[in-house]
Write a structure and sequence with these properties.
By secondary structure, the protein is mainly alpha-helical. The chain folds into two domains: 89 residues, Winged helix-like DNA-binding domain superfamily/Winged helix DNA-binding domain (Arc Repressor Mutant, subunit A), CATH 1.10.10.10; 35 residues. The chain has a three-stranded antiparallel β-sheet with strand order 1-3-2. The longest helix has 18 residues. It is elongated and about 55 Å long.
Length: 127
C-alpha cells in the first residue's frame, strides 16, 4: 500500500467518473464533471495530465483524442485512502474509525445489517 498515491478531492472526482464510465476522453470526463463541479475544460485536461504523471491514471495516446482510465480499481484506491486516514486521524485504530463513521450520521437498517454480516464473517475467519 505504500506505493499508492493519495488523490486530492478533485482527483477523486475525476477517478469516480473513470470508475463509473470506464476509459474516457478529456471531453467526456469534463462533461460528466461539469454536472457537479465548476471545473473548466483546460483545468480538467491539466488535472488529468498531473494525474498521469502521478500514476493515478493511464493514458492511451494512439488516437488524436487521448483516452484516460483509472490506473487502479476503486476498491484498491479506497483501501489506500482508508489506511492513510486510519494512520493519520485515528492513530492506527480501525475500531475508532468505524465507531466514528457509524456515529457520524443516521445509518439505515440495511446498512446496519451489512455491517453485522461483515463483522460475523470476519469473526468466523478468525476462529
Amino acid at each position: 500500500m505504500a506505493n499508492i498515491k493519495i488523490p486530492t478531492a478533485t482527483e477523486l472526482s475525476i477517478l469516480q467518473v473513470l470508475w463509473e464510465n470506464g476509459p474516457s476522453t478529456v471531453r467526456e470526463v469534463h462533461d460528466r464533471l461539469s454536472k457537479s463541479e465548476q471545473l473548466g475544460y483546460t483545468s480538467t485536461l491539466k488535472m488529468l495530465q498531473i494525474m498521469y504523471k502521478k500514476g493515478l491514471v493511464e493514458r492511451n495516446d494512439e488516437q488524436r483524442s487521448h483516452i484516460y482510465r483509472a490506473a487502479r480499481p476503486a476498491e484498491q484506491t479506497q483501501r489506500g485512502l482508508i489506511t492513510d486516514l486510519v494512520n493519520k486521524a485515528f492513530a492506527g485504530s480501525a475500531t475508532d474509525l468505524v465507531v466514528r463513521a457509524l456515529s457520524s450520521k443516521k445509518i439505515s437498517h440495511e446498512e446496519l445489517e451489512q455491517v453485522r454480516a461483515f463483522i460475523e464473517q470476519k469473526a468466523s475467519e478468525n476462529d
